[in-house]
Design a protein that fits this description.
Blueprint (H helix, E strand, L loop, with lengths): L1 H8 L2 H20 L20 H8 L3 H4 L8 H16 L1 H7 L2 H32 L11 H9 L1 H29 L4 H23 L3 H22 L2 E8 L2 E3 L2 E3 L3 E7 L6 H20 L6 H9 L5 H22 L2 H10 L2 E3 L6 H32 L2 H4 L6 H6 L2 H31 L1
Antiparallel strand pairs: 1-4, 1-5, 2-3
Helix pairs in contact: 1-19, 2-9, 2-10, 5-6, 5-7, 6-7, 7-9, 8-9, 9-10, 10-19, 11-16, 11-19, 12-14, 14-16, 15-16
């Protein structure tokens, strides 16, 4: 990767893209430090381990807990993209629109932005009213007569804070799109990547200042091993060889070549983990938001037997990861459509008849590959929390800020985005070399 950066900076066009990417990232990080007037932030309960709220806080670079401009960050845009991706498969008009070239993609992008705006409004209202309430607001931020006015008319401050948070989320979306358009790699992924690294860096500094050397040492060794495991699985794939028949047209012969269909072991990426965490955390969010008495029998029962880190929670998490892995694999890889394309181009899998048998063979392969991908995601989701709990087993204290910062989802996203950025940079250099050769 270091050699790739060195070669990239030697090329003027690529160097310009890298500098623009750095500029947009700096603007994003500045927004994570701009305090929203009247918004004190959300006090997170990290004693229960990693849940959806702590993941969202890590993605935003702790902006959610600090009450800054990008408190809800890029999450609404991510959710909108996921919703549109699912609807594109389920609704035929949207599917036709997505296959209508650049014009269709532009229309899908416009719809996605409007869905993002709606989700940003809902998220901002949920953060301020549900998670924060009056304790999240600071009516005395202007002092004097203004403090009395906002205290008497608290709804005005609610509207103001929600408006600023929605504007910050839409600005995050704009920055991500500009990085994708003018910079290197996917802008949304880079924004998430930077937020997670920022939260992790803060947690490491806090651990060093607190003198938790044993905790920090175990963390670093565990993270290196987990990162190596993620990189190893990320590059693993099953290649299906396709042989194309020879065709004689006039005086020329076409075909007779072979190609491969690469199927990645973890083709669905981090999405099954995000879906599983979101679904399991939803009941806890509702209880935390609408259940006033946190000491009631029902809340106590839920936290003890269904809360984060319990045996039931762990079992359901593993089951949901498997279900979502297969669901996402079916969306990404359609055996029937691929079989038709192979047959239409005069190709076939060696030893397999074209048509129905090819479809069944591809479905069997993708099912087996998805099984190992789901096992990998389950291991990544469950093993880190066990490794990070070693200090408590040997008499030390577990640093929850480190555990929350280095969640399974965060580590997967970090490695995936880093590999994606390196590949995008190599592609930019390669394209530049091709252009120079053509000239």
């Amino acid at each position: 990767m270091i050699e790739t950066f060195r070669n990239a900076f030697k090329i003027k066009e690529v160097r310009k893209k890298i500098l623009l990417t750095i500029l947009f990232v700096i603007i994003y990080r500045l927004g994570c430090y701009i305090q929203v007037p009247g918004f004190a932030g959300i006090e997170l309960d990290t004693s229960g381990g990693v849940d959806l709220i702590t993941i969202l806080n890590a993605i935003t670079g702790s902006a959610l807990s600090q009450g800054t401009l990008f408190a809800i960050g890029i999450s609404p845009y991510i959710n909108a993209s996921i919703i549109m991706q699912l609807l594109t498969v389920a609704i035929p008009p949207l599917e036709r629109m997505s296959k209508n070239g650049e014009e269709g993609k532009k229309k899908i992008a416009v719809i996605t932005r409007w869905v993002t705006l709606v989700l940003a409004i809902v998220s901002a209202i949920g953060v301020v009213l549900g998670l924060g309430g009056d304790s999240a607001l600071d009516t005395n931020f202007m002092g004097g007569i203004a403090a009395d006015f906002f205290t008497a008319n608290i709804w005005v401050l609610y509207i103001f804070v929600v408006f600023i948070l929605v504007a910050g989320s839409m600005l995050c979306m704009w920055l991500g799109e500009r990085i994708t358009e003018y910079g290197i790699s996917n802008g949304i992924s880079l924004i998430i990547f930077v937020g997670i690294l920022s939260t992790a860096g803060t947690a490491i500094i806090s651990s060093i200042q607190g003198g938790n050397w044993l905790q920090l040492g175990i963390f670093l060794v565990s993270i290196i091993l987990i990162f190596a495991f993620i990189v190893w699985v990320d590059g693993a794939e099953r290649k299906i060889k396709i042989q194309y028949a020879k065709q004689v047209k006039g005086n020329k012969m076409y075909g007779g070549q072979s190609n491969t269909i690469p199927i990645k072991v973890n083709g669905s990426g981090v999405m099954p983990l995000i879906f599983a965490f979101a679904l399991l955390s939803f009941p806890s969010m509702l209880i935390q938001t609408f259940w006033a008495d946190s000491t009631s029998g029902f809340v106590t029962f839920w936290n003890n037997y269904m809360g984060t880190g319990t045996v039931v929670y762990t079992v359901f998490l593993a089951i949901l990861i498997f279900l979502f892995s297969y669901f996402y694999a079916q969306i990404q890889f359609n055996p029937m459509e691929i079989s038709k394309n192979i047959q239409a181009n005069g190709g076939s899998i060696i030893g397999i008849r074209p048509g129905r048998e090819t479809t069944e063979y591809l479905a069997k392969v993708i099912s087996r590959i998805t099984l190992w991908g789901a096992i990998f995601l389950a291991i990544i989701a469950l093993v880190p929390s066990l490794l990070f709990s070693i200090p408590s087993w040997i008499g030390g204290a577990s640093d929850m800020s480190l555990i929350n910062s280095f969640s399974a989802t965060g580590m997967l996203i970090t490695v995936s985005v880093a590999l994606e950025f390196n590949k995008a940079l190599e592609n930019q250099i390669l394209m530049r070399h091709y252009k120079s050769f053509l000239k």
